[in-house]
Amino acid sequence: MIYEPIDTTIEKLGEATIPSPAGYEYYTKDSAVVLYKAIFDNPEEVNDYHAAKPTFFEQAGPREKIYFDPQWVTAGIVTCGGLSPGINDVVRAVFMELHYRYKVERVLGFKYGYEGLTRKHGHKPILLTHEIVSDIHNDGGSILSSSRGGQDPAEIVDFLIENGIKILFTIGGDGTLKGTRAIHDEIKKRGKKISVIGIPKTIDNDINMIQKTFGFSTAFSKALEAIKCAHVEATGAPNGIGMVKLMGRHSGFITVNAALASKEVNFVLIPEQDFDLEGEGAFLPILKQRILKRKHALIIVAEGAGQKFFENNDMTDASGNKKLGDIGVFLKAKINEYFRKENIAINLKYIDPSYMIRSVPANAEDSVFCGFLAQNAVHAGMAGKTNMVVGIWNNVFTHVPIDVAVAKRKVLDPKASYLWRAVLSSTGQPNSMIARE
Ligand code: F6P
């Protein structure tokens, strides 16, 4: 097997020569790495992998020597894109680590995403203090608010320079990271020594080569409330069908994990797995069999599933995401129409919890995770790393070049993923719901 190495080199602003004031018992060496591939079919493959130039990530963690002298550092934090549980945990932890460990005095919070990094929008930065951030983790949303869409990198870099920013922390997903890279490129063009560090936020958990993003765990756990209600409705009426639509534009991770946690779900529809509606072996006839046999059914569908049923449009949102057809509303109509034609009375209840799964505070797991991501982001920034995002791989915190993180979206592979296999076992739905010719 040929292994194509991926360039995961992390850019540095210069040599780190200043002893860290963080006062930790031990530090992570700059040479410490995490191998990308850890699972092989047989020992020969391990040898092949090691013989090739294996892909690995730089390990995250505090460095003994840092690049920036803390007394001259002003750091900035900006939160962009859709909300996600845990943003405030991250803002708090970035501030606390900078302030108490590294003795950085000035941390600015920029309002409304990248808008807050331009003069023209006029959003005044907030000077963060212990008092301002100490309780914010108890609330959903972002104390800095957010916005979608990029701004002119030249304007942003002017603004960073005016505000004396040495390290900018950007909290966001794919679109945000592309914006961060554009800011980095502009900084580099001007020969400035400003570090930009991303922190991976998206409930969709779809960032390339990052095991998990923050907010994902809370979002799919919160989705369970809607799924439970849909199940109660489905079992509470003759031929009851409960259907829940969940977020997940390109990836079904929220939907799949919520289904696995619920254990009541009978059909899981995700963007990564094609399905047909009618014809032998397709979704609606299989749903009919289920209703005839069991008298109730529970369906969860990711918002990006079944987009082939909609006319292609080229419309995108401010983050450059394609505007999706509403698969929940579409399926509701199709299911009702199909059973009407089949002369079977059903009771279909459709729930779209929508933003309710992402505007809540982080659960305990996400809250802990946010703290680690934020602390590691601070360590990376103080060490002079740049153009990177903090990640996690094989349960170890990593540094991932932004180019690698935005190269493609992480999706679930229904042919190879243990998650999808577990969904098939849990739901009993067939491997394929494509109509047979
Ligand atoms: O990008 C994350 C996400 O939660 C997606 O799952 C969803 O499609 C999108 O945000 C919706 O957000 P908004 O309505 O703010 O664009």
Overall description:
With 437 residues, the protein is of the alpha/beta class. It has two domains: 11-214 and 362-405, Rossmann fold; 219-357 and 415-427, Rossmann fold. It is built from twelve helices and 17 strands. It has helices spanning 43-51, 87-101, 130-133, 153-162, 174-189, 216-235, 253-262, 283-294, 327-341, 364-382, 402-405, 418-427, and strands spanning 11-12, 18-19, 33-35, 56-59, 65-66, 74-79, 106-110, 126-127, 165-172, 195-200, 240-246, 267-269, 296-302, 347-351, 385-386, 388-393, 396-401. A nine-stranded mixed beta sheet has the order 3-4-17-16-10-9-6-7-8, with helices on both faces. Helix 8 (283-294) links the parallel strand 12 and strand 13 (296-302). Helix 7 crosses helix 12 (418-427). It is globular and about 75 Å long. The structure holds 6-O-phosphono-beta-D-fructofuranose (F6P). The site of 6-O-phosphono-beta-D-fructofuranose has 11 residues, from loops.
Number of helices in the DSSP assignment: 12
* Radius of gyration, taken over Cα atoms and rounded to an integer in Å: 24 Å
Q: Which consecutive residue ranges, at least 5 long each, have pLDDT under 50?
A: none
CATH class of the largest domain: Alpha Beta
What's the average pLDDT?
96
Bound molecules: 6-O-phosphono-beta-D-fructofuranose
Q: Strand count, sense and closure of the main sheet?
A: 9 strands, mixed
Q: Please identify the structural class as seen in this structure.
A: alpha/beta
Query: Which architecture of the largest domain per CATH?
Result: 3-Layer(aba) Sandwich
- The CATH topology name of the largest domain reads Rossmann fold
Q: What is the β-strand count?
A: 17
Strand order of the biggest β-sheet:
3-4-17-16-10-9-6-7-8
